[in-house]
Amino acid sequence: MSSTDLPAHTLIDVGANLAHDSFDHDREQVLTRARDAGVASIVITGSCASSSRAALELARTRPGQLFGTAGVHPHHAKDWTAEDRGWMRTLAANPEVVAIGECGLDFCRNFSSPEDQELAFRAQLEIAIETALPVFLHQRDAHERFCVILGDYLDHLSRAVAHCFTGSQQELDDYLDMGLYIGITGWICDERRGHHLRDLIPAIPQDRLLLETDSPYLLPRDLDPKPSGRRNEPMYLPHVAETVAGCSGETLEEIAERTSGNARRFFSID
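Predicted structure:
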């Protein structure tokens, strides 16, 4: 089965940055293309106060199709203050907001200091516990410290997903031991950096695999024909799903049904 044969309105993209300004000129067309490609729902990632509010506003325009998260990405952790707890709790009280995050640690670029990142990360894990919402996690070049901090809260979190997983077998094992869901993106389609993920797909429990595009980032490199630009969008999620299906020995339809069921359970959405 090719991605063009995917049953209508089947997949769920659990992480797309649709509040990004690269979508400002054609966001409605992007959503229509996603729907036509078989993407039933999209969870819009919040990475700061403004994008989290924008995610909520967008979710309200298409009830049941769009949802949002509320969070502060580690890149923005230097701006974290005690007041951020207030707006995050307020957003989290809306039914369209289905997770706390994107939050975590990123020691690759250190746009915020490790100390600021850890402070913001802990605060958001506390909010996830207070609100009983799942947490949408980011980790880059910070695995050991990430696991230590997350471990302090794990017993009280409802659910957690390692967003955009690109790590090693050991990192995967650690996350699975912690009960995390695993989010797979178009990174798996990158022959330079991501092909090791293909061997890891069978190790992910069937009930903990999620699919995402991380649009507008991580455009699958092996699309054929190749798009004229570099912007990724949710319409390409079936291509990611097809790649994952090939790694797991399932059909595209089976992967779509299974991962969408996982997403509905994880985010408590219908």
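Summary: The chain has one domain: 3-267.
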